[in-house]
Write a structure and sequence with these properties.
Belongs to the NmrA-type oxidoreductase family. This protein is of the alpha/beta class and 308 residues long. The chain is 41% helix and 18% strand. It contains 14 helices and 13 strands.
């Protein structure tokens, strides 16, 4: 079915962080390898038009309605699938958000099967069960189980903590210091990566489908503690950036737990409990150009703009 010429890849969420990265990585591959389509709700938006200028072929559709995008799947070799739990999560409705995400992903997977799509590259997360039930992680496992049960061809790309989250953490200026409230204790390793580069792993997966079908590729850049991240931010920005000194005891307190949405607290608790292997060497061997934290800082103008 898929002979000579570019292979069509349909990217869901092409205007988002993950989908946009996938589109850019595929378009940067050997010319003539991929024909990149992007599913968008509004093709006239600035983000959609920016992707069109890069060479993405836009098609209008909404993950809530498989019929709205199913025609665009015809003739596709692969899709990148990433429904957004956080679109539905309001801080107190994890079950509802999980149900939305699962329904959207399964609806898209079924549409792919009906249209003969060869491969589904699915953005997933680690499961922490039975120790922790974290809906935005376990939703992905529900979908993976479904893909396996249905015999669909899939490859998982497993995201880790986004380096860019540091731009969102609460911060305040105290004297000559910028104090950043990291959500983990000062000495706790946090395995992260540049979400802007997730497309490199997706491209690797699509170029190695025989090896990775039915398997998960971990996307990892580097493990750093909050204290070390603050030091690296200081070195690059020239500002004195410090943490607020969160200890393990304070993190484990009921007071601190109540200060965060339960979904996020459980996620960080699972990481603190050793739920993620801090070794990033196997992941980086697949994508050697993957940034470590300092490299991400150097390539991200928003860092200096944020810590002023």
């Amino acid at each position: 079915m898929f002979g000579l010429g570019p292979k069509k890849v349909v990217v869901f969420g092409v205007t988002g962080e993950q989908g946009g990265s996938v589109a850019r990585a595929l378009l940067a591959d050997t010319p003539g390898t991929w024909e990149v389509w992007g599913v968008v709700r509004d093709s006239t938006s600035k983000k959609a038009q920016d992707m069109a200028v890069r060479g993405v072929l836009l098609t209008t559709g909404d993950l809530e309605d498989p019929h709205s995008y199913e025609d665009a799947l015809k003739g596709a070799y692969a899709v990148f699938l990433n429904a957004n739990f956080w679109q539905w999560y309001n801080g107190s409705n994890p079950t509802e958000a999980k149900e939305h995400e699962v329904r959207q992903n399964i609806g898209a997977a079924d549409a792919c099967q009906r249209q003969g799509v060869e491969h589904i590259v699915f953005s997933t997360l680690p499961s922490f069960e039975p120790n922790f039930d974290i809906p935005h992680c376990e939703s992905k496992q529900v979908v993976v189980n479904y893909l396996n049960d249905m015999g669909y061809k899939w490859i998982g790309v497993q995201a880790s903590w986004y380096y860019s989250n540091v731009l969102l953490f609460p911060r305040k200026t105290v004297g000559d210091e910028i104090v950043v409230s990291f959500p983990m204790p000062d000495n706790a390793p946090m395995v992260g990566f540049a979400v802007e580069q997730i497309g490199l792993w997706v491209r690797y997966a699509l170029n190695n489908t025989q090896k990775y079908t039915g398997k998960v590729i971990e996307c990892k850049g580097e493990a750093n503690t909050p204290k070390v991240m603050a030091e690296k931010l200081s070195a690059h920005t020239g500002k004195k950036i410090v943490t607020d000194g969160l200890t393990r005891d304070k993190f484990m307190s009921e007071e601190y737990r109540k200060s965060l949405p339960e979904e996020l607290y459980l996620n960080y608790l699972a990481i603190l409990d050793g739920g993620i292997n801090p070794d990033c060497s196997a992941s980086r061997a697949l994508v050697p150009e993957d940034y470590d934290f300092a490299e991400w800082i150097a390539h991200t103008p928003a860092v200096k703009a944020t810590f002023v």
